[in-house]
Amino acid sequence: NINIEIERGHTLGIVGRNGSGKSTLLQIIVGTLTPTTGTVKVQGRVSALLELGSGFNPEFTGRQNVFFNGQLLGLKPSEIEEKFDKIAGFADIGDFIDEPVKTYSSGMFIRLGFAVATSVDPDILVVDEALSVGDEAFQRKCFARIQDIQERGGTILFVSHAASTVVQLCDSAILMDHGEMLLYHAPKYVVSKYQKLIYAFPDKIPSIREEIRQIPNLTVKDFLDDEETDEQSSQSEQSSENKISESTEYEEIYDPEMIPSNTIHYPNKGSEIIDPHIITLDGKRVNHLINRREYYYTYTVKFINSTSKVRFGMLIKTLSGFDLGGASLHGYTKSVEYIEAQQKVIVKFKFKCLLNPGVYFLNAGVVGMAGDHLTYLSRCIDIAMFRVQHCSDSCGTGVVDFLIEPSLKIRNMTFI
Q: Are 311 and 329 in contact, with CB atoms under 8 Å apart?
């Protein structure tokens, strides 16, 4: 049950549990499945990378499949010949290009499939979870190609279970469940509701699903308005920061009204996280930080039940929801062997604020044994937020301050 219009140049993320209808929706849009009822109208050349190996004849070589798929996508043999070296170079599977694809690994399938799908300069690119198969270097190459398609005004439909990728890559997102579009909204908002749904106790799922269903969906106009609002807010924020700079020279302060509005508390399974905040090294509570200074991120955990193999974690995210980095108090191999019920644990993470000016969010989580399996005992998304302000010595751009020290030499040129 879906009713949606996707404008040209828009990137739509699609999230949902396994079996929710994500892949079926894409196959209907591409035309490999026919809808039982309703209509689908597509304008432009569509190129799709669906389930692993789709569109490939396993008996043909990679080279033969490139020509076969290229013609299906509307290219003439001469055009495919002209593009072949670039396709083979992007796929980077070496001599396997002349071997039957039935001998390919899953990663090789994806490499060649993505290279072909994006080589035709599609108006609409459809990607169904395929990029999770390739190695990191190839994934980065794929995302660069996707960004190139976005910059050229292409439309992209992107299915992924990787929440941070959806938030980073997409302009909007939909949440699918049991063949129904529960929500169409901004990516970060949709991802937060998706995570709330998948981590809920089974008896809570129907009520959460109904709660999400009642949220008004946004329209294309809303997203355009949001972009204008974001730009105005950014200008207003910059003006405010300039005034702060003139009056306070960036002090470390605590603003009690700086509280996240979309915090997600997952169901507690034996512990509860309370009072998350940041303090200076001398114990002053702050949420306006100065970059290149050191701080503690701290929270208290109340243990309702006794548990074992306990680890405590944190994560820092951007305003758009992209994961920047975090840590586990005892790493991935060590843990606190046993904690009794009714005990409290104060957790501290010392960090150097190597972030450039902006607003950031914090997660907190506790992992331990619940019964006979290891799981989150408590987990909170966007439980705290903070603003980073300029350090007078900083010249960084982007998100992360790499402590770059620029230098230059000016020399006279000698002409002969």
A: yes
pLDDT at 248 (0 to 100): 41
The fourth-level CATH superfamily of domain 11-219 is: P-loop containing nucleotide triphosphate hydrolases (3.40.50.300)
Confidence of residue 134 (pLDDT cuts 50, 70, 90): low
The predicted structure's pLDDT at residue 132 = 66
Residues 367, 375: contact at Cβ < 8 Å? yes
- Residue 254's SS3 state is coil
Query: Which option is the CATH number for 264-389: 3.40.109.10, 2.70.50.60, 3.40.50.800, 2.30.30.140?
Result: 2.70.50.60
Q: 40-78 pLDDT, tens per residue?
A: 999 988 988 876 556 788 899 999 999 998 888 888 999
Residue 313, C-beta contacts closer than 8 angstroms, at least 6 positions apart: 326, 327, 328, 329, 363, 364, 365, 366, 367
Rounded-to-integer distance, Cα 198 and Cα 53, Å: 28
Strands 336-339 and 307-318: antiparallel
The mean predicted confidence, pLDDT, of the chain is: 86
